[in-house]
Design brief:
12 helices; Beta-Lactamase; five-stranded antiparallel beta sheet; about 45% helix; alpha+beta
Length: about 280
Protein backbone atom coordinates (compact mmCIF):
# COMPACT_ATOMS: atom_id res chain seq x y z
CA UNK A 1 0.00 0.00 0.00
CA UNK A 2 1.49 3.33 -1.08
CA UNK A 3 -0.07 5.70 1.45
CA UNK A 4 1.51 8.85 0.04
CA UNK A 5 0.46 8.25 -3.55
CA UNK A 6 -2.97 7.00 -2.49
CA UNK A 7 -3.57 10.14 -0.45
CA UNK A 8 -2.38 12.40 -3.29
CA UNK A 9 -4.54 10.59 -5.83
CA UNK A 10 -7.67 10.82 -3.68
CA UNK A 11 -7.13 14.48 -2.94
CA UNK A 12 -6.46 15.31 -6.59
CA UNK A 13 -9.60 13.47 -7.76
CA UNK A 14 -11.70 15.13 -5.04
CA UNK A 15 -10.46 18.60 -5.92
CA UNK A 16 -11.03 18.03 -9.64
CA UNK A 17 -14.71 17.20 -9.12
CA UNK A 18 -17.16 20.08 -9.02
CA UNK A 19 -20.47 20.01 -7.10
CA UNK A 20 -22.36 20.13 -10.39
CA UNK A 21 -20.55 16.95 -11.51
CA UNK A 22 -22.26 14.92 -8.80
CA UNK A 23 -25.63 16.65 -8.63
CA UNK A 24 -24.85 18.97 -5.69
CA UNK A 25 -25.54 22.69 -5.38
CA UNK A 26 -22.54 24.98 -5.24
CA UNK A 27 -23.86 27.39 -2.61
CA UNK A 28 -22.73 31.00 -2.07
CA UNK A 29 -19.94 30.34 0.47
CA UNK A 30 -18.00 27.52 -1.12
CA UNK A 31 -14.26 28.08 -0.86
CA UNK A 32 -12.99 24.52 -1.21
CA UNK A 33 -11.41 23.56 -4.51
CA UNK A 34 -13.67 20.85 -5.83
CA UNK A 35 -15.67 18.80 -3.33
CA UNK A 36 -15.42 18.78 0.43
CA UNK A 37 -14.28 15.63 2.20
CA UNK A 38 -17.66 15.19 3.83
CA UNK A 39 -19.33 15.36 0.42
CA UNK A 40 -17.07 12.66 -1.00
CA UNK A 41 -17.60 10.51 2.09
CA UNK A 42 -21.36 10.75 1.61
CA UNK A 43 -21.03 9.81 -2.07
CA UNK A 44 -18.95 6.78 -1.04
CA UNK A 45 -21.31 5.75 1.79
CA UNK A 46 -18.58 5.89 4.41
CA UNK A 47 -17.77 8.01 7.43
CA UNK A 48 -16.00 11.34 7.03
CA UNK A 49 -13.36 10.18 9.52
CA UNK A 50 -12.55 7.05 7.51
CA UNK A 51 -12.19 8.94 4.22
CA UNK A 52 -10.23 11.77 5.85
CA UNK A 53 -7.69 9.36 7.30
CA UNK A 54 -6.99 8.00 3.82
CA UNK A 55 -6.24 11.50 2.53
CA UNK A 56 -4.10 12.13 5.62
CA UNK A 57 -1.97 9.01 5.04
CA UNK A 58 -3.45 7.30 8.12
CA UNK A 59 -5.83 4.45 8.80
CA UNK A 60 -5.95 0.77 7.77
CA UNK A 61 -5.61 -0.63 4.29
CA UNK A 62 -8.98 -0.21 2.54
CA UNK A 63 -10.79 -3.39 1.57
CA UNK A 64 -11.70 -4.09 -2.05
CA UNK A 65 -15.32 -3.30 -1.18
CA UNK A 66 -14.33 0.10 0.19
CA UNK A 67 -12.19 0.82 -2.86
CA UNK A 68 -15.08 -0.02 -5.18
CA UNK A 69 -17.26 2.41 -3.24
CA UNK A 70 -14.59 5.12 -3.50
CA UNK A 71 -14.23 4.52 -7.24
CA UNK A 72 -17.97 5.04 -7.72
CA UNK A 73 -18.10 8.02 -5.38
CA UNK A 74 -15.21 9.79 -7.13
CA UNK A 75 -16.64 8.92 -10.56
CA UNK A 76 -13.45 7.15 -11.63
CA UNK A 77 -12.97 5.63 -15.04
CA UNK A 78 -12.05 1.93 -15.23
CA UNK A 79 -8.35 2.81 -15.66
CA UNK A 80 -8.49 5.16 -12.68
CA UNK A 81 -10.26 2.50 -10.62
CA UNK A 82 -7.50 -0.02 -11.39
CA UNK A 83 -4.87 2.56 -10.41
CA UNK A 84 -6.69 3.16 -7.10
CA UNK A 85 -6.68 -0.56 -6.30
CA UNK A 86 -2.96 -0.87 -7.00
CA UNK A 87 -2.08 2.15 -4.85
CA UNK A 88 -4.03 0.56 -2.00
CA UNK A 89 -2.07 -2.68 -2.31
CA UNK A 90 -4.68 -4.79 -4.12
CA UNK A 91 -4.72 -6.40 -7.53
CA UNK A 92 -6.94 -4.54 -9.97
CA UNK A 93 -10.32 -6.23 -10.48
CA UNK A 94 -10.48 -8.62 -13.41
CA UNK A 95 -11.81 -6.75 -16.40
CA UNK A 96 -14.66 -8.19 -18.37
CA UNK A 97 -17.36 -6.99 -20.71
CA UNK A 98 -19.73 -7.13 -17.74
CA UNK A 99 -17.88 -5.24 -15.01
CA UNK A 100 -19.63 -4.11 -11.83
CA UNK A 101 -17.95 -0.71 -12.08
CA UNK A 102 -20.58 1.87 -12.99
CA UNK A 103 -19.36 4.16 -15.77
CA UNK A 104 -18.85 7.86 -14.95
CA UNK A 105 -21.44 8.76 -17.59
CA UNK A 106 -24.08 6.59 -15.96
CA UNK A 107 -23.21 8.03 -12.55
CA UNK A 108 -23.60 11.57 -13.91
CA UNK A 109 -27.12 10.73 -15.03
CA UNK A 110 -27.90 9.17 -11.65
CA UNK A 111 -26.60 12.27 -9.87
CA UNK A 112 -29.23 14.39 -11.59
CA UNK A 113 -32.05 12.13 -10.43
CA UNK A 114 -31.56 12.58 -6.70
CA UNK A 115 -35.26 13.25 -6.02
CA UNK A 116 -36.41 10.37 -8.26
CA UNK A 117 -36.30 6.62 -7.49
CA UNK A 118 -33.57 5.34 -9.80
CA UNK A 119 -30.90 2.67 -9.59
CA UNK A 120 -28.21 1.02 -11.69
CA UNK A 121 -28.56 -2.75 -12.00
CA UNK A 122 -26.24 -5.45 -13.32
CA UNK A 123 -27.50 -8.10 -15.70
CA UNK A 124 -27.97 -10.42 -12.70
CA UNK A 125 -30.24 -7.90 -10.99
CA UNK A 126 -27.59 -6.68 -8.54
CA UNK A 127 -28.08 -3.07 -7.43
CA UNK A 128 -24.81 -1.21 -8.00
CA UNK A 129 -25.92 2.35 -7.20
CA UNK A 130 -29.11 4.02 -5.96
CA UNK A 131 -30.50 7.51 -5.60
CA UNK A 132 -31.67 8.58 -2.10
CA UNK A 133 -35.28 8.30 -3.29
CA UNK A 134 -34.69 4.71 -4.43
CA UNK A 135 -33.28 3.83 -1.01
CA UNK A 136 -36.41 5.20 0.64
CA UNK A 137 -38.56 3.06 -1.63
CA UNK A 138 -36.54 -0.18 -1.81
CA UNK A 139 -34.12 0.09 1.11
CA UNK A 140 -30.35 -0.01 0.68
CA UNK A 141 -29.95 -2.79 -1.88
CA UNK A 142 -26.21 -2.20 -2.31
CA UNK A 143 -25.45 -3.68 1.11
CA UNK A 144 -25.91 -7.33 0.13
CA UNK A 145 -23.12 -9.83 -0.48
CA UNK A 146 -23.03 -13.11 -2.38
CA UNK A 147 -25.99 -14.50 -4.29
CA UNK A 148 -28.45 -12.48 -2.23
CA UNK A 149 -27.24 -9.40 -4.11
CA UNK A 150 -29.41 -10.59 -7.01
CA UNK A 151 -32.98 -9.33 -6.71
CA UNK A 152 -34.19 -12.53 -8.39
CA UNK A 153 -32.47 -14.69 -5.80
CA UNK A 154 -33.85 -12.57 -2.95
CA UNK A 155 -37.35 -12.75 -4.41
CA UNK A 156 -37.47 -16.52 -4.00
CA UNK A 157 -35.50 -16.86 -0.74
CA UNK A 158 -36.34 -13.79 1.37
CA UNK A 159 -40.05 -13.08 2.05
CA UNK A 160 -39.26 -9.47 2.96
CA UNK A 161 -38.05 -8.85 -0.60
CA UNK A 162 -41.67 -9.01 -1.75
CA UNK A 163 -43.01 -6.38 0.62
CA UNK A 164 -42.52 -3.55 -1.88
CA UNK A 165 -45.08 -5.09 -4.27
CA UNK A 166 -48.80 -5.70 -3.61
CA UNK A 167 -49.52 -9.36 -2.83
CA UNK A 168 -51.82 -9.82 -5.83
CA UNK A 169 -48.95 -8.88 -8.16
CA UNK A 170 -46.51 -11.46 -6.74
CA UNK A 171 -47.25 -14.29 -9.24
CA UNK A 172 -46.51 -12.03 -12.21
CA UNK A 173 -43.24 -10.87 -10.66
CA UNK A 174 -42.24 -14.47 -9.91
CA UNK A 175 -42.67 -15.37 -13.57
CA UNK A 176 -40.79 -12.26 -14.71
CA UNK A 177 -37.82 -12.88 -12.40
CA UNK A 178 -37.63 -16.52 -13.48
CA UNK A 179 -37.65 -15.51 -17.15
CA UNK A 180 -34.93 -12.91 -16.51
CA UNK A 181 -32.70 -15.48 -14.81
CA UNK A 182 -33.29 -17.95 -17.65
CA UNK A 183 -32.25 -15.35 -20.24
CA UNK A 184 -28.96 -14.60 -18.48
CA UNK A 185 -28.34 -18.30 -17.86
CA UNK A 186 -28.74 -19.01 -21.57
CA UNK A 187 -26.47 -16.07 -22.45
CA UNK A 188 -23.65 -16.83 -19.98
CA UNK A 189 -23.66 -20.63 -19.90
CA UNK A 190 -23.59 -23.51 -17.44
CA UNK A 191 -20.43 -22.36 -15.62
CA UNK A 192 -21.54 -18.79 -15.01
CA UNK A 193 -22.71 -17.00 -11.88
CA UNK A 194 -26.20 -17.12 -13.33
CA UNK A 195 -25.96 -20.91 -13.44
CA UNK A 196 -24.90 -20.99 -9.79
CA UNK A 197 -27.97 -18.93 -8.87
CA UNK A 198 -30.20 -21.31 -10.84
CA UNK A 199 -28.74 -24.35 -9.07
CA UNK A 200 -29.21 -22.72 -5.68
CA UNK A 201 -32.81 -21.68 -6.38
CA UNK A 202 -33.74 -25.11 -7.74
CA UNK A 203 -32.57 -26.56 -4.42
CA UNK A 204 -34.10 -23.89 -2.18
CA UNK A 205 -37.34 -22.72 -3.80
CA UNK A 206 -40.11 -25.10 -4.95
CA UNK A 207 -41.88 -22.09 -6.50
CA UNK A 208 -38.84 -21.26 -8.65
CA UNK A 209 -38.38 -24.93 -9.59
CA UNK A 210 -41.96 -25.15 -10.82
CA UNK A 211 -41.68 -21.95 -12.85
CA UNK A 212 -38.31 -23.02 -14.26
CA UNK A 213 -39.96 -26.12 -15.71
CA UNK A 214 -42.32 -23.88 -17.73
CA UNK A 215 -39.39 -22.58 -19.84
CA UNK A 216 -40.98 -19.15 -20.09
CA UNK A 217 -38.70 -16.74 -21.94
CA UNK A 218 -39.10 -13.00 -22.29
CA UNK A 219 -36.75 -10.06 -22.02
CA UNK A 220 -39.05 -7.18 -21.22
CA UNK A 221 -40.94 -6.16 -18.09
CA UNK A 222 -44.13 -4.19 -17.96
CA UNK A 223 -43.45 -0.46 -17.97
CA UNK A 224 -46.34 -0.06 -15.52
CA UNK A 225 -45.52 -1.09 -11.97
CA UNK A 226 -47.39 -0.98 -8.69
CA UNK A 227 -45.17 -0.46 -5.66
CA UNK A 228 -46.08 -0.26 -2.01
CA UNK A 229 -44.46 1.79 0.74
CA UNK A 230 -45.56 1.52 4.39
CA UNK A 231 -45.87 5.30 4.80
CA UNK A 232 -47.65 6.30 1.59
CA UNK A 233 -49.34 3.11 0.39
CA UNK A 234 -49.58 1.75 -3.15
CA UNK A 235 -48.33 3.80 -6.10
CA UNK A 236 -48.81 3.24 -9.83
CA UNK A 237 -45.50 4.09 -11.46
CA UNK A 238 -43.90 4.01 -14.88
CA UNK A 239 -40.50 2.37 -15.23
CA UNK A 240 -38.10 3.65 -17.90
CA UNK A 241 -34.84 1.81 -18.61
CA UNK A 242 -31.57 3.16 -20.00
CA UNK A 243 -29.13 0.43 -21.06
CA UNK A 244 -25.33 0.73 -21.08
CA UNK A 245 -24.23 -1.89 -23.65
CA UNK A 246 -20.52 -1.58 -22.82
CA UNK A 247 -20.95 -2.42 -19.13
CA UNK A 248 -24.16 -4.42 -19.42
CA UNK A 249 -25.86 -2.20 -16.84
CA UNK A 250 -29.42 -0.91 -16.77
CA UNK A 251 -30.56 2.36 -15.22
CA UNK A 252 -34.13 2.00 -13.94
CA UNK A 253 -36.05 5.24 -13.38
CA UNK A 254 -39.48 5.28 -11.72
CA UNK A 255 -41.88 8.19 -12.29
CA UNK A 256 -45.58 8.92 -11.85
CA UNK A 257 -47.96 10.80 -14.08
CA UNK A 258 -48.35 14.41 -12.85
CA UNK A 259 -51.73 15.24 -11.35
CA UNK A 260 -52.36 11.71 -10.08
CA UNK A 261 -52.51 10.43 -6.52
CA UNK A 262 -49.43 8.34 -7.20
CA UNK A 263 -47.52 11.48 -8.23
CA UNK A 264 -48.40 13.16 -4.93
CA UNK A 265 -47.33 10.05 -3.01
CA UNK A 266 -44.01 9.92 -4.85
CA UNK A 267 -43.38 13.57 -4.04
CA UNK A 268 -44.18 12.89 -0.38
CA UNK A 269 -41.78 9.95 -0.43
CA UNK A 270 -39.03 12.26 -1.66
CA UNK A 271 -39.69 14.60 1.29
CA UNK A 272 -39.61 11.68 3.71
CA UNK A 273 -36.28 10.60 2.29
CA UNK A 274 -34.80 14.08 2.64
CA UNK A 275 -35.91 14.22 6.28
CA UNK A 276 -34.41 10.80 6.99
CA UNK A 277 -31.08 11.75 5.43
CA UNK A 278 -30.99 15.06 7.33
CA UNK A 279 -31.88 13.32 10.56
CA UNK A 280 -29.24 10.65 10.04
CA UNK A 281 -26.49 13.28 9.77
Amino acid sequence: MDRDQLADFLRHRRESLQPEDVGLGRGPRRRTAGLRREEVAALCDMSVDYYSRLEQRRGPQPSEQMLSAIARGLRLSVNERDHLFRLAGHNAPVRSSRSEHVSPGMMRILDRLADTPAQVMSELGETLAQTPAARVLFGDETRYQGMIRSVGYRWFTDPEARNVYPVEDHPAHSRAFTADIRSIYALRGARSRAAAIVDALLAESPEFAALWEDHEVRNTHSLEKRLRHPEVGVMELQCQVLFDPEQGHSLLVLTAQPGTESYDKLQLLSVIGTQQISGGR
